[in-house]
Amino acid sequence: MTMTPPAPPSANSQRIAAARAQNAVKIYGSGDTEVTALRNVSVDFEAGKFTAIMGPSGSGKSTLMHCMAGLDRLSSGEAFVGTTPLSSLNDKQLTMMRREQVGFIFQSFNLVPTLNVRENVTLPMDLGKGGLDDAWIDEVIRTVGLADRVAHRPNELSGGQQQRVAVARALASRPDIVFGDEPTGNLDSKTSSDILSFMQRAVRELGQTIVMVTHDPRSASYSDRVLFLADGEIVHEMQNPTTELVYDTIKSLGD
Amino acid sequence: MLKLVLRGIRANLGRLFMTLISVVLGVSAVSGSFILADSLRAVFNGISEDAFAGVDAQVRALEPELSSSDLTVLRFDDDLIDEISELDGVNYAEGGLFAFEQVYSIDSDGEIVRPQGPPVFTASWGGDSPVSSFTLLEGSAPTGQQVALDKAQTDSGGFELGQMVTLSLPSGEPGQFELSGIIDFGEGGTGGAYFILFDLPTVQSILGAEGEVDSIVVNADGGLASEALLDSIATLLPEGLEVVSGEAVIDESQEDFGSFISVFGNILLGFAGVILFVSTFIIRNTFAILVGQRTKQLGLLRSIGASAGQIRRMVLSEAVVIGLLASALGLVGGLGIASLLKLLFSQGGGGFPEGPTEIRIRTIVVVLLVGLGVTVGSALLPAMRAAKVSPLEAIRDGGKTGRTNKFRLIAGAAVLLPGLALLFTGMFGSVDSLSLRLTCLGLGAALTFIGVAMLSGLFAGIVSYKIGAPAEQVSGITGRLGRENAARNPERTAATASALMIGLALITGVSVLAASLLRSFDALLEDSITADLFIFEENQGLPFSPVLIEQLDALPETDLVAGYTTVRALVAGEQETFTAFNTEVGDQVVSFNVVEGIAAIGEDAVAVSEPEAELRGLSIGDSVAIEMEDGFQTDLTVEGIFEENGVIDSDWIMSIDFAEPHANIAGIDYAGMTYAEGVSPEAGRAAVDGLLRAFPQLSSQDNSDFKETFTSQINSLQLLVNGLLALCLIIAFFGIVNTMALSVLERTREIGLMRAVGMTRDQLKRTIRWEAIIVSLFGSFLGVALGLLLGWAGVIAIPDNVISKIGIPWVQLAVFLIGGGVLGVIAAFFPAARAAKMNVLDAIASD
Ligand SMILES: Nc1ncnc2c1ncn2[C@@H]1O[C@H](COP(=O)(O)OP(=O)(O)OP(=O)(O)O)[C@@H](O)[C@H]1O
Ligand SMILES: [Mg+2]
Questions:
Q1: Complex ipTM, two decimals?
Q2: Which residues of A touch B774 (CB under 8 A)?
Q3: B481–A113: do the CB atoms touch at under 8 Å?
Q4: Is B456:B494 a contact under the CB 8 Å cutoff?
């Protein structure tokens, strides 16, 4: 099986990487229980691109997301959001960074149950001091199709609607980059494709940068670029993926 | 099963710890009360046995049916001593005379030497004898112009054996006595009291009781008074005297001490009960939360075949283990409390009797029952709820099996309404006895507390959401989240707040009563006191010698002087209490608002209160049949009818000149006077205080002193009571900490999420703090409101001559509310710190 040669990086992306990892190493535990989740990963996430990360279970995808999003720290190497090296930030600065520059979508349980849809979307901004761009927030909420549910609480929403709120929240603060760890992993394929196409539009039309972990080749096909992780290393990379291409690649990597 | 129980306890150790503390506090209070009372009783029993060692029989006056004074014992002729001594079988007989707070020693600075609290006794002592209650430590027994003092008094006055000691005497003339001996009471010490001992003739002349004694103690040949000896003594006795065996004397005195200690112990037990009551709410709440959180686990157990009964038993067994542990710790805690109180007393009262600490089997049994009962009782409802968890709930996410609001409304009302009914019965019902009224109030209050606690779940959500509005305004999203969290589980908020509610309601109630007492007293001073100066014994209101009244009257600076005392007499065959004074001053010293007739009634007249006159159908000019203590009977004319009044708190008034020869008056209770024209208050006071130097136990007070004294007395009483009630607040505090900690644990994922999207640790802490503040304020508002209700109920139920007006201590109420909020801030500290320490990723990944 021949690998698709990586497409030449665009001049644009060379200049602005929304986030990047440099020789990222993450080791959990020590001694006998030591697990190396990331070994020397270096990767750029171009601004304005939708990147998918794939790989077998335990390959280090979540770990990479968490370390890039400032939710966890690398054992060595460096992660940058914009030009900021995350290791230089203390806990408070990391929190600020998560609040202002990074959006995160978890597989489930993304919402604060006591807040309604709109409050959940604006939560990161409410936590900060800056004012709200109401028009933009309305637009985001409308785009995810929840304009008529703004006053509802999470327990009044379906799982898919809840994930859409999560996506809206991740985008609402116009972060430099949005990370999603299997954001549609719990959803049926129809709902899942709704959300994915919305994310795709957010990238194409609103200029957002999104990095998403997925197990599903069809989900990956919504992205501009797919990174394949195995055993804590990037083993392959594909531009402009289609479901079939991704599927084939996974099969070939598995051999 | 046991393994599961133990595992359940171990897994929830932290959560159960707080519960344990609240049970332990309550149980400790109970066991402390018992241990202290038992130890005191043992010590005093020992003292009685010491005091009457060698006394095989005692001759004394029969207690008269009608007695004006509870302090004086009737005296009789001392010739009997010799007659008894000569009887066959009598080894030794000694006459005794005894008085209470009449003679004091004066130190070289002219200051009175007296213990704080315990009394000063004056007694005769015949020296070392088979019946002596005293042991000589140094020197010799007093004879003639000599005195013997106890060790503590000697030390505190700086006296030395052989020196002349100045004594203040009832005559008003101080006397000089040589300190011949230093004594101890029995072997075990004086229990804090001071003793001033003379030989019999000296005491007789000091107390103005020449040729009289109040008891004769007899030591029999062979050490035991036979029935025959008692009989032969009895034949010698004139009417009005009796002889009792030594054992009977010891039994009586032990009973006297015993009943005093029981009252004291019961007061402590009352507080312990309140504390336990409050703990119950906390325990119930903790078990309810724990069961709620384990719904999934319990469902799983059910789905793998555990029966409902097994689940119920599992939860109850946890309660049993906690209860046992709490009882054991409570017993130890009780020992601590008892020794602490003993220490406090001995520091306050100068010499608390030393003695062993008594832990009776009864105490252990009660503590076990209480500890187990409270814990298991509180866990009963949660256990039943746990048993209802269906296997399905293991799969469903955190299914809620709460009761319906309708059920809660009905159940709550079913408790609250009888509670309120009882409260109103105590206030307005036709219940005559004060203690019955207060019992109604107490029961009513307890039911009201439970009822409100049950019902408050219905409105805790809305109300705490409303209370939280300022939080959102002040601190934005953190305030908003705190507000939402406080309101999201109304039942839990209500249960958590209820302990605080009860504690603060009691404290508020006491404060309202205290403020009302002060206001009523103010009104009383304004209305009834026309005197410029009053004289009384400040510590216990003990009577003093009438000699002082004459001396005061003789002062050129005084105009009218009146000495007031209490006399009991039969009016048409019924015993009544009279205020007796030199009625010729009328109501110019103490006003009693005469509505008909005159105030300055004559010697052959009485004045009667309006309600009493109505009751007996008396009007001015009627005559009433009076029988005095000594049997003297006469008719007196009603010359005045007066309104009820708080200073003169009896329904009847008579002239002291009439009463004196026929009543056994212990002395003057208080004296009041007005100054002569042109005498400045300073000059008048100086002259009176000059006289008082001979009566060092007395103090002079004008209206403003009165107010000050009364205010400070009420304040310190309020402080003491509220200090004990503050234990409830501590329990409430633990309850809040516990609930908050459990809630934080329950919301781990949510907390992780909020941290992930940019909530700082400080913001998280603030969120939790706001929640705790709102929950505390909810409890505080309810508590203060209920406290006002209770205070008002108390004011209505307590007779008008004690509390006539309601006073609302606004500042204190504000402090209580703010204090409630502060309590929340402090209670949030630990849960907030714990939440802030959570690792974001772990929190998100947690189940
Ligand atoms: N907190 C942790 N402590 C110890 N080891 C961990 C921890 N988190 C992850 N690991 C290990 O690190 C490796 C990578 O885990 P990671 O969660 O990044 O995998 P993943 O690619 O996201 O897998 P999946 O597709 O199953 O979500 C795994 O071997 C995992 O067991
Ligand atoms: Mg993962």
A1: 0.87
A2: none
A3: no
A4: yes
